[in-house]
Amino acid sequence: MKYLDEYRDPVAARKLADTIARTVTRPWTIMEICGGQTHTIVKYGIDEILPSQIELVHGPGCPVCVTPLEMIDRAHAIASRRDVIFCSFGDMLRVPGSRGDLLQLKSEGADVRVVYSPLDAVKVAADNPGRKAVFFAIGFETTAPPNAMAVWMARKRGLKNFSVLVSHVTVPNAITAILDAPGNRVQGFLGPGHVCTVVGYDEYEPIASQYHVPIVITGFEPLDMLEGVLWTVRQLESGRAEVENQYGRAVQRNGNAQSRQLIDEVFEVCDRKWRGVGTIPQSGYRLRDAYRDYDAEKIFAVEDICTQESTVCISGEILRGLKKPHHCPAFGKQCTPQTPLGATMVSAEGACAAYFHYGRHLVSLDVSTDTPSLAAGDRR
Amino acid sequence: MCLGVPGQVVETYHEHDVLMGKVAFGGVFRRVCLEHVPQVKPGEFVLVHVGFALSRIDEQEAKRVFEFLERMNQLDELESPSQDAESQAGESDEPLEKSPP
Amino acid sequence: MSDPSVAGIDWSSCPTPKSNYDRILLGHGSGGRLTNELIERVFVPAFDNPILAALEDQATLNLAATNGGAAGGLPRLAFTTDAFVVQPLFFPGGDIGRLAVHGTVNDLAVGGALPQFLSAAFILEEGLPIDDLKRIAASMRAACDEAGVQLVTGDTKVVDRGKGDQVFITTAGIGIVPPGRNLSIRSVRPGDKILVSGTLGDHGITIMSVREGIEFETALESDTAPLTSLVQAMLAACPAIRWMRDPTRGGLASALNEMASAAGVGVELVESTIPVRNEVHAACEMLGLDALYVANEGKLVAVVPADDSEKLLGTMRAHPLGQNAAIIGTVVDEHPRMVLLRSLVGGERVVTMLAGEQLPRIC
User: Fold this and answer.
1) What does the pLDDT read at residue A103?
2) Using alpha carbons only, how large is chain C's radius of gyration in Å?
3) pLDDT at position A334, please?
4) Which of A10, A64, A339 faces C344 most closely, judged by CB atoms?
5) CB-based contact C345 A1, cutoff 8 Å
6) Fewer CB within 10 Å: N-end or C-end of chain C?
């Protein structure tokens, strides 16, 4: 596939890894923001081909993982209703709430359907006029344009039986929360490539200068990530702290003007609870008043459902890059993708789930890099 | 964090007044909403996330990393290992994208 | 870290109950970890006998031993059963009937048996158009003829509208195992090579492309096919083949994890050698799926001593169903019960067992 496969070329990857090795002179800790980037690192073993001075810590950029427990409970309450067709992205169905996950609800007879796109949920509404179609609108800024478009289209077509349960989160204030946390070790960031495709990266410039951290907006393929690391390391080695755009083929500084406009029309910024982390001010979107007829929380009166998070899991520390999955005593034991205890295990992109899926609970710890490593002698 | 996949626009059409397209991903085709990339023409590539085009793929930018690697290959051929320090200095002059005026 | 001796089926070392679910989920049918859990928790204890406990795809029955007859006098029979619940009933490249015949025949064939007879029991939902049933029956007849088997007995039941998904088909199959043939999952040895007969994921992606909410256009078709003649050609060329399986639901990853666990060996795969069609690759990228876990219905995986691997590859490629055959990995004695993959860019990762249903992802 063009613009995809060529960014997985092994010779080019080796070349970039060697360049990084020649550039680095001391240890650096870099955080990749997006769950998709974490996925690439673990899937291709990127951290294995990087020099050992580079430590990659995994960020909170997994919208499925950070959807708060009470939002799952609200979804559960809505989906349990007989008159509702509850539509959702596939990976949300396995997130456990207080009363189980949406897949279990489906097995008990609820009409829960996987859709690939929010626009397909609008179609479900149009095809089922006698019932209420509800779409679970989660995501970062990347998913805001399609979610906003779904609401906008429903209004345009005069559909009265479509609504969205919104749980949007936004990146910049999560980064500052990480940087402000005591014990923060992150020195540079691989910024969220697809988020910035939509909203641009001008918001990151004040963060880079205020906290003096380089932020390289990075893509998702192996060559993108290696190049992102290279540019970050170069900045760190030379004491610079700027925003650079590695993902230029998809990202421009001002993002997509039309998307920004539609997001602004349909959504407004609000405080959001992040599972495992707590409330981060001004870190999410909710529907504007003008669109309250499409707000499932209001229509089904579930706003009062509030739930406390589990105290056992260390997701919060993992999402902030303070710990890694293998530091958690429950990892791979009580806490697995089938029986997740917390945020970072619930979706394929959460750090714990990615580590688990790619078997890092089964291999030895390379103590020199504090990373589960297949190269570390005794493979189990 | 978000699964965004490049696809090639095959044709465009309107559905309920919204700009849509038939987009080719390798050998499979899917309908994609193109409302936010209205200038796109058949033959061009877009980045698609959950059935929605987020942006056009800039072909020039897409080549950049390969041009960099090509330059490195050429440098390696010209230089011996003892001149690595010099080649590093050359690389740090890489044009980095700054905010456009 | 988890108990290393049960890598790949690590839930048995988990202190909490093996599954939180007290009802059947779709994931229990996915061919991965949940399916295995169900088998181990419910069926094996209930039917406890050594033939079932071997958990091969087919049971090889030694009638001489049970009848007290002279060894070598009576043939060994291979016996298998299977169930088919695919939706939609008719899909590009086939239908539920064709799938049922091929699936049953293949379970017998990969054990080295010559399939002979099938039975089929139909559970039909009230309201199913009879024309659809006629199409399915005709398709099964054609598939039986092509595979050289006869459907010799059957049954039909009807359930109320809403209590069944149009058609469910359960089959049983009987084949003859030639004397001296002893394919077994436990005969796999370090140093052996692993081969696949062709491209992975064709069937599962075809089905997904016609699934409501996900649909996409593709020229892909299900790869459903009877593998008997391919297997016979392979065994004739390389009688030393250790073990074969048709990797259906759960995909190649699940089949190899089961092999690694049962045989107590490690597996190393090379990503760049695994054959995948462009369309399957593209669909997997688009939906965020992994072709290693997607179902195949006309492919097999075979393990053979290293010295025979090139010859076997040549034999497979010469057969119409093996044109894209490839050597994709090696059995090793390191990391027992673990399947590793060397990625395109050189790093390694573990290929774990599928947990639950594979769902398209957003991230």
Assistant:
1) 86
2) 20
3) 78
4) A10
5) no
6) N
The number of beta carbons lying within 10 Å of the beta carbon of residue A219 is 30
Interface pTM, i.e. ipTM: 0.87
Question: Which pLDDT score, from 0 to 100, does residue C18 have?
Answer: 37
Residues of chain C scoring pLDDT < 70? 1-23, 25, 63-73, 213, 355-357, 359-363
pLDDT at B81: 55
Q: What is the rounded average pLDDT of the residues A103-109?
A: 89
Give the chain B residue nearest A194 (alpha carbons). B2
Q: Are A20 and A55 in contact (CB under 8 A)?
A: no
Does the beta carbon of C288 lie under 8 angstroms from any beta carbon of chain B? yes
Question: Quick one: pLDDT at residue B78?
Answer: 75
- Subunit contact A1:C278, Cβ cutoff 8 A: yes
Do residues C204 and C299 make contact, with C-beta atoms less than 8 angstroms apart?
Answer: no
> What residues form DSSP beta bridges with A86?
A112, A134
Of all residues in chain B, the one with the smallest CA distance to A117 is B50
**Would you place residue A249 in the very low, low, confident or very high pLDDT band (cuts 50, 70, 90)?**
very high
Q: Which of A64, A169, A202, A249 to mutate to test the interface with B (most CBs of B within 10 A)?
A: A249
pLDDT < 50: residue spans in chain B: 1, 83-101
Task: Render B1-58 in DSSP notation, one character per residue.
Answer: ----EEEEEEEEEEETTEEEEEEEETTEEEEEE-TT-TT--TT-EEEEETTEEEEE--
Write b or e for each residue in A231-253: b if 16 or more Cβ atoms lie within 10 A of its Cβ, otherwise e.
bbbbbbeeeebbbbbbbbbbbbb
Pairwise CB contact (< 8 Å): B25 & C288: no
Burial degree of B41 (CB within 10 A; 0-12, 13-18, 19+): exposed
* Residue among C288, C338, C355 whose CB faces A362 most closely: C338
- Which chains does chain C touch, 3 or more C-beta pairs < 8 A? A, B
Distance from CA of C330 to the nearest CA of A (A): 17
Q: Amino acid letter at A20?
A: I
- Angle at CA A192, nearest 5°, toward A187 and A197? 145
CB contact under 8 A, A116 and C287: yes
- The verdict on C10 touching A (C-beta cutoff 8 Å) is yes
The whole-number pLDDT of residue C64 equals 58
Closest among A85, A86, A21 to A48, alpha carbons compared: A21
- Output the six-digit token pair for C235: 């065994």
Nearest by CB: A114 against C11, C344, C360: C360
